């Protein structure tokens, strides 16, 4: 049996660890980060293949789904009440009192396949969008640990009859409509939208007056994030909200005294799904060997003098042990 895992880099260590710890003998686990890599990986797959998509935003087309004779399953970052794009934002906007994650079988129609299991937690009153997102992440991990052994077995995974999809399936267009403000918006509605669609900042909201569209920006117009450092690489995304298709040059400062540059032009499906630009605003920078010495090193990413959110971060890498000499 071959299990193919599709997972964003930030969740990869956890996803990989749980699957490999639970996979029975004879089950091979293959992990990829993008749909393009998945297409290449399945070329060598035969009978007995299953797909697990874990908190990943790319939509899997029908021709790829058909390659998995043991089924394809998705960890959706919301309860079945919130199918579609940015579910944590809509749950926050509607003040959902519980939230979580869903495992479901994938079909050609997005977020409509049979529900396998659901995890829920209560949401503290007055929580903003990022709290809902963190609850979804925690419950997805809980479901992964609970279901990993069954999902890495060739047996069919039965749906849970007591759970079914509900609510309105939201699209990127629906999301964009919520960040386009009207001049007559009430103070309460403005606060509610910022709480639900804005965190960690209000960049991206727009207002149209007399045919002229105004876009709310950060102090420099830059929006982005410095992601957790994984696999000896600095990564994240950044774009200028007024010029979202302009590719930016990122400055990476190590230990406060040495600068490196990298271009933010890699595809990020999660950023596109969130409604920012065309998705080609990601960056990855391999950390040089000289900094993989086991000592802590400070890493900061900035663009046009503005540090990205998420940083600075502390990086350290233990060098690989030296093999014993041959006598």
Automatic annotation (TrEMBL):
Signal peptide: none annotated. It holds the Pfam family Formyl_trans_N. It comes from the Bacteria. InterPro entries: Formyl_transf_N, Formyl_transf_N_sf, GART_AS. Coiled coil: none annotated. Residues 58-129 form the Formyl transferase N-terminal domain. This is Bifunctional polymyxin resistance protein ArnA.
């Amino acid at each position: 049996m071959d299990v193919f895992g599709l997972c964003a880099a930030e969740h990869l260590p956890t996803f990989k660890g749980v699957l490999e710890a639970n996979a029975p003998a004879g089950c091979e686990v293959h992990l990829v980060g993008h749909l393009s890599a998945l297409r290449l990986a399945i070329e060598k797959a035969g009978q007995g293949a299953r797909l697990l998509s874990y908190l990943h935003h790319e939509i899997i087309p029908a021709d790829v789904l058909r390659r998995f004779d043991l089924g394809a399953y998705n960890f959706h970052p919301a309860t079945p009440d919130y199918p579609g794009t940015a579910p944590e934002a809509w749950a926050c906007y509607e003040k959902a009192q519980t939230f979580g994650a869903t495992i479901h079988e994938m079909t050609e129609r997005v977020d409509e396949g049979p529900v396998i299991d659901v995890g829920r937690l209560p949401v503290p009153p007055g929580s903003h969008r990022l709290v809902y997102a963190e609850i979804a992440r925690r419950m997805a991990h809980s479901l992964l640990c609970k279901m990993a052994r069954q999902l890495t077995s060739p047996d069919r995974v039965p749906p849970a009859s007591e759970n079914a999809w509900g609510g309105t399936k939201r699209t990127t267009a629906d999301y964009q409509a919520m960040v386009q403000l009207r001049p007559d918006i009430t103070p309460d509605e403005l606060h509610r939208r910022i709480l639900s669609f804005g965190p960690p900042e209000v960049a991206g909201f727009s207002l149209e007056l007399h045919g002229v569209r105004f876009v709310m920006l950060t102090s420099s117009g830059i929006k982005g994030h410095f992601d957790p450092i994984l696999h000896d690489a600095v990564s994240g995304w950044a774009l200028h909200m007024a010029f979202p298709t302009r590719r930016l040059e990122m400055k990476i400062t190590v230990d406060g005294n040495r600068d490196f540059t990298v271009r933010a032009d890699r595809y990020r499906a999660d950023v596109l799904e969130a409604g920012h630009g065309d998705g080609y605003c990601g960056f990855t920078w391999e950390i040089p060997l000289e900094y993989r010495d086991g000592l802590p090193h400070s890493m900061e990413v900035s663009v046009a003098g503005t540090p990205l959110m998420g940083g600075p971060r502390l990086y350290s890498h233990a060098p690989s042990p030296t093999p014993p000499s041959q006598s």
